[in-house]
Known about the structure:
Blueprint: H1 13-47, H2 51-60, H3 62-86, H4 102-126
Amino acid sequence: MIENTGFFTNTPVWLKKIGLVLLFFIIYLVFVGFISFGGEIALAKVFGISDSVFREQAKSDSTTMLLNYIINFLATVLIIWLFWRFAIKKSFPEIGFKDQKWLKNLILGMVCGIIAISLGFLISLIFGFVKIQSIA
């Protein structure tokens, strides 16, 4: 449980949870941002081009985009594991994979993610931030 973490020892449980969520997001944004930026620089060096040219090329080159997404995914898994291991002080499978309903929770999480992304797209479409030029 979160009560045994050692963080926020004399505070209410609800405040501990809010503090841990905020701490996670701050660490996540900083860490994954640095990993993503470092990954872009490393990929630019591998391809032998400057960083600014790499960023422009990455917008249109699917291989470069895929490598960038893989780096971001691995950084995300790493920061979740580090936070879960050292801040929450639990093992990685305890995130929810030991639960009997892990598959149901996984599917529900994927559906919620699809809905959230679709809503973001629809809002962007409604307010004119996205335009569909053709459907192939």
